[in-house]
Write a structure and sequence with these properties.
With 466 residues, the chain is an alpha/beta fold. It has a domain of 72 residues. The chain contains 14 helices and 13 strands. The strands form four sheets. Strands 5, 6, 7, 8, 11, 12 and 13 form a seven-stranded mixed β-sheet that branches. It has a two-stranded parallel sheet with strand order 1-2. It has a two-stranded antiparallel ribbon with strand order 3-4. Strand 5, helix 8 and strand 6 form a beta-alpha-beta unit. Helix 5 packs across helix 6, helix 6 crosses helix 7 and helix 9 packs parallel to helix 11. The longest helix has 21 residues. The mean pLDDT is 91.
Length: 466
């Protein structure tokens, strides 16, 4: 809607965009990111989902109509000067570390934790050995409209305490953010889903990353600080703060990078997560997706695949609720939850001769819920799937596979994903503990996206004579 309003205003057609109360700042910031300051808004009082139709119409007539009329009579001045921000080399603060941190906190440039002051010298030193052109842009940071420059990535890297060893990973992560398929512009939606970063490849240790116990806990510097860097970039470049685009109701803290156990994967003959995007085991790859909720599958008991499979399937179904709107509705076929297996669990499958495909197919058969429960999630308990149709109706129209409509029995078990390959399986964590972790993804609002990590020195600044 806001994109359409900007296009209309730029064509000389006055508009007023209707937004819910509390979304005014986000809407104005989005307009600014699209090139239009001062977007005219008509604010809908209260939360529309919690009002009856009569209440909503009453509030609309009493408050919103006047704003709509005023906005149409006083259109946006598209030639007005846009709001200004500091330039890349501007000195925005001076003093000792405590003073720098105070200024950054006051301006919303920090995540609330102490930062390393990003002096020009520190940023230049970080980039010195990389060969990158500091002003090369990897794309536009949506929805803010700012540039994702090498310099800006390095500024935030210094703030997080990262060095040249990790910088190639940061560049690859920025390429994910710039990829249209990822959908970074949704990173401030109200459910508060946040990205998980998965690292695969032979160069993990050389870049300072570690796989093993406490795989999703702070402690290892590269794993932890890289997760923090992503949060800083989302804040400072993409604009996901409460003053701009972040409307997360709760949100999640920054997640450390999840590093897959490549040795275990090689031992059992399974592909890493990066293989989903066509990369090989010899490629260093970063994969990102936004996750809503998660649950531990603790102390899995059993020594055969058949014994431990029910634990894993139960964990996956326990985290599948509102997220099922991404099966059909908010991005059809886009529910692709993550299952993280500890190495000991993965080896139980591998030593029994199970391939990764075998596990995914078994999960497709076992990770199921009653059809009536599924339909409540995407219909009765949600306004996000049009028509509130049953699964049999959706299957008849070709929107979901036949497995969702094998009968009309409301208690029949139906899958939580559209096909077995939608289960994303990673192997990480303590090699001596029989635990797993499941996370439900936010569909196309941060879709699974992988980029190769280029660890070679950049040739940006080299003069190559043929």
């Amino acid at each position: 809607m806001l994109r359409a309003a900007v296009a209309a205003e730029q064509a000389g057609i006055p508009t007023v965009s209707l937004v819910c109360e509390g979304f005014e700042r986000q809407s104005l910031a989005t307009g600014r990111g699209l090139g239009l300051d001062g977007m005219r808004l008509g604010v809908l009082t209260g939360h529309v989902d919690s009002q009856s139709t009569e209440q909503m119409l009453e509030h609309f007539a009493a408050h919103t109509v006047d704003e709509v009329i005023a906005g149409l009579l006083d259109p946006v001045d598209t030639d007005a000067e846009r709001s200004t921000e500091p330039n890349a080399l501007d000195v925005v603060a001076t003093g000792d570390a405590a003073e720098i941190n105070r200024v950054f906190l006051a301006n919303g440039w920090s995540d609330g934790n102490p930062i390393v002051p990003p002096s020009r010298r520190r940023v230049e030193d970080l980039l010195l050995t990389t060969g990158h052109d500091p002003w090369r842009s990897l794309g536009t940071a949506r929805p803010s409209g700012r540039d994702l420059t090498i310099w800006s990535l390095a500024v935030n890297a210094v703030m997080a305490g990262l060095g040249p060893e990790q910088f190639p990973t940061l560049v690859a992560m920025a390429e994910v953010l710039a990829d249209d398929g990822y959908g970074v512009e949704h990173s401030g939606n109200t459910t508060g889903a946040d990205a998980i970063v998965i690292l695969d490849g032979p160069g993990q240790a050389e870049m300072g990353f570690t796989a093993g116990a406490g795989a999703m806990r702070e402690g290892v510097h590269a794993n932890t600080a890289t997760g923090r860097w992503l949060r800083l970039v989302l804040r400072n470049l993409c604009g996901f703060t409460s003053d701009e685009h972040d409307k997360a109701t709760f949100g999640n803290p920054a997640r450390p990078v999840l590093v897959e156990d490549m040795a275990c994967l090689a031992e059992i003959g399974w592909d890493p997560v990066s293989a989903r995007a066509g990369f090989g085991a010899d490629d260093d790859v970063v994969t990102m997706a936004r996750m809503n909720s998660g649950a531990i599958v603790g102390s899995v008991y059993g020594s055969t695949p058949e014994e431990i499979l029910p634990y894993l399937a139960d964990g996956l179904t326990r985290t599948a609720a509102w997220d099922l709107t991404h099966v059909y509705g908010l991005g059809s076929g886009h529910f692709a939850p993550l299952l993280v297996l500890s190495p000991v669990l993965a080896r139980i499958f591998g030593r029994a001769g199970w391939s990764l495909d075998d596990l995914q197919q078994a999960l497709f058969e076992r990770a199921r819920i009653p059809a009536s429960r599924f339909e409540r999630y995407i219909g009765e308990w949600s306004n996000l799937t049009a028509g509130r149709r049953t699964l049999t109706q959706l299957a008849a129209e070709g929107h979901v596979p036949p497995a969702f409509a094998e009968s009309d029995d409301p208690d029949r078990a139906v899958p939580i994903v559209t096909e077995s390959s939608k289960f994303v399986v990673a192997v990480a964590g303590d090699p001596n503990r029989t635990n797993a972790y499941v996370l439900s993804n936010d569909g196309p609002h941060g879709w699974w996206t992988s980029k190769r990590i280029d660890r070679d020195r950049s040739t940006d600044l080299e003069c190559i004579v043929p």
